[in-house]
Amino acid sequence: MVSYKELGLVNSKELFKKAIQGGYAIPAYNFNNMEQLQAIIQACVETKSPVIIQVSSGARKYANQTLLRYMAEGAVAYAKELGYGIPIVLHLDHGDTFELCKSCIDTGFSSVMIDGSHLSYDENVAVTQKVVEYAHAHDVTVEGELGVLAGVEDDVSAEHHTYTRPEEVEDFVKKTRVDSLAISIGTSHGAFKFKPGTDPKIRLDILAEIEKKIPGFPIVLHGSSSVPQDIVKIIKQYGGKMDAAIGIPEEQLRAASKSAVCKINIDSDGRLAMTAAIRKVFAEKPSEFDPRKYLGPARDALKELYKHKNCNVLGSAGKA
Ligand code: G3H
Ligand code: 13P
Ligand code: ZN
To answer: What pLDDT digit, counting tens, does each position of 92-122 carry?
Structure first.
């Protein structure tokens, strides 16, 4: 059993409290490898932003949970070495079972998500309660989810959004004692969030309804990549196929950050930024075969993207 406290990590409680009071959101960036983690830490140190680094089931399969945990421990020391010890939360993204959440808590994660959104309401309550009981005994924070995002999440896919029902949130939060709640208001995972020609809009009206039911309670938005069109253009310019890639407009995320939304999940934009940079190197320097020569530019592009998010979208810059 390793406590996250011994690793220099923090849970999300204080960060969320300050974020709601201050009208900004904490960035939750996914990582699977060293370059992504370096970019996240460099960007957040340079912008003095608190950060949630998150590990999905896919990341655990790709990189190994133990290795990722040691990398997170290294990230705490790395931030200090870069000159500023920002608060870092190590979070399990989309945990699907009690056993997985427990295993992460036991190995040093400071926060977990139990995603029971595909279960019946009562089953979702039951599994979330069980995770909260174990997590709180170890001072680990828990994110639950109500409502289903459209799109693909690991092996589960939903064709349409099932928006979170505002009339359910108070009961869910009371029964489960979760620390934050992920909601479905029209965001979705991946780079193809809206059909071309439709209005790319999230349901800020449902968010407002939810806030009325649970005032000041921390809300989380998944699927919040904006799919920057300048990055998509570079991918296409260098041979990528990315037609109809559309994300959440930044101004809508900025508006949401000013409310009780205090954690915003971004993964796909980082994947796009790395892909664009790598495609460019491969196209312009076909004889290059040193991975540092293409992963390095990818890391730089990722860092710039995250700095932009912290400063201009989430408003977390300067809050560490
Ligand atoms: O929720 C989805 C995240 O972008 C993680 O994706 O399961 O492919 O690592 P992944
Ligand atoms: P995006 O696919 O929009 O980046 O969402 C990531 C996410 O929600 C991770 O949990
Ligand atoms: Zn997600």
So the answer is: 999 999 999 999 999 999 999 999 999 999 9
| Residue ranges in the chain modelled with pLDDT below 70 | 152-158
| Minimum CA distance residue for ligand 2 atom 5 | 223
CA of 262 to the centre of ligand 1 (A): 20
Task: Determine the distance separating the centroid of ligand 1 and the alpha carbon of 8, expressed in angstroms.
Answer: 25
Looking at the DSSP bridge assignments, the partners of residue 52 are 28, 89
Q: Which atom of ligand 1 is nearest to the CA of 222?
A: 1
**Reported pTM:** 0.97
For the domain covering 4-314, report its CATH number.
3.20.20.70
Note if 93 is an active site residue: yes
In the chain, where are the structural domains located?
4-314
Which tokens is 72 given? 């997170």
212 vs 166: CA distance, rounded Å: 9
CA 133 to ligand 3 center in whole angstroms: 23
Query: Taken in order 203, 209, 213, 218, is the CA torsion positive or negative?
Result: positive
